[in-house]
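We emphasize that the prediction below concerns an isolated chain of 131 residues; any contacts that depend on oligomerization or on bound cofactors are therefore not represented. The input was used exactly as deposited, without trimming of termini.
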Amino acid sequence: MKTMLDDRHLNPLRLALLAIIAGYFAWLWFHPPATPASSAPVLQKPTQTTSRPSQPATLASCPAHILEVGASTHEVRLKIDGAADRILVYTAAGPVTASTETAGSAGEYRVLLPAPPQAVQLDNCPPLNLP
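Result of the prediction step, given as a token string:
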């Protein structure tokens, strides 16, 4: 009497499964998966060296001004006069954007960074380079 799971009947299935797996890896060898491009835009480091712009009209259009900056290796603390929506901090690892609603209140803000800060910018105001 024959059993339902006779090895002689399963050998072609095993061979087909092995061929499919080998074919998959061969296809990957000749057609590697595409690496996704970075979706983060590349921003260049600001070149302005002071917080005072050369044109007074630009300063007048800024609703907020940085009063004090305290920078450490992985953190920036700001005191701001006026209203700003976002804080943009430039680092060697790339720019870090923080919302003023989540970074602090009452004119004092704290932004955690992956690398030492190089410059700070509020909204579209001119950047302030840090020493």
